[in-house]
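Lab notebook, design round three. We kept the backbone fixed and only want residue identities now. Task for the bench partner: fill in a sequence for the structure below.
Input structure tokens:
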């Protein structure tokens, strides 16, 4: 991706070795027959990896707001076209559609600082809750609001079936930043965290 894509959209593609590691953490074995979601699927790399392990009634679903990369995802997932659903749009607006439908949710969501988000997005989330999670921070203080990746994490939890498994690549700041303490407490009170792995910047 270009530097502009990374700054404004948070688009960074996921290395293949990391994808296989995420699939293993999600406990998606070869022969898996469950439903897999990537709410920020980009060109479909995570879904492609999951698709290679599916059998039977296994299914894939992805969402992305960028038509260019979603077109690539459709090409990449052509061998699984009969079991893959790809949606063009903002996954954060699809909570009702995605709720409690998936056995596994995987994502490398966009990392975009609050100050770089559109005014429409900031107005929408500045002083409200999202899928039952209170949004921390102060609306008029730039970086005192959470990175957009946390909204995807909340959505991922919302999309899981009971007992489902979620694996996300996240910026490490969410673990300690005071501005996301309310969201962090909400997540930790609802999810059973089995492992946290910190990658080096070179990965």
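Proposed sequence:
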């Amino acid at each position: 991706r270009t530097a502009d894509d990374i700054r404004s959209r948070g688009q960074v593609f996921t290395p293949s070795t990391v994808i296989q590691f995420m699939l293993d953490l999600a406990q998606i074995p070869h022969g898996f027959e469950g439903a897999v979601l990537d709410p920020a699927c980009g060109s479909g790399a995570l879904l492609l990896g999951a698709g290679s392990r599916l059998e039977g009634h296994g299914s894939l679903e992805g969402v992305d707001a960028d038509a260019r990369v979603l077109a690539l995802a459709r090409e990449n997932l052509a061998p699984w076209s009969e079991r893959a659903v790809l949606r063009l749009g903002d996954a954060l607006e699809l909570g009702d559609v995605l709720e409690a439908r998936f056995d596994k949710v995987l994502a490398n969501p966009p990392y975009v600082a609050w100050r770089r988000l559109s005014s429409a997005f900031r107005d929408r989330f500045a002083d409200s809750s999202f899928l039952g999670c209170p949004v921390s921070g102060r609306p008029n203080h730039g970086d005192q609001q959470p990175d957009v990746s946390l909204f995807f994490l909340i959505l991922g939890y919302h999309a899981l079936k009971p007992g489902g498994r979620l694996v996300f690549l996240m910026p490490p700041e969410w673990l300690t930043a005071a501005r996301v303490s309310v969201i962090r407490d909400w997540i930790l009170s609802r999810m059973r965290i089995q492992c946290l792995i910190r990658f080096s910047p070179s990965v």
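Keep this in mind before ordering anything: Strands lie at 35-38, 59-64, 84-88, 102-107, 129-130, 133-134, 160-168.
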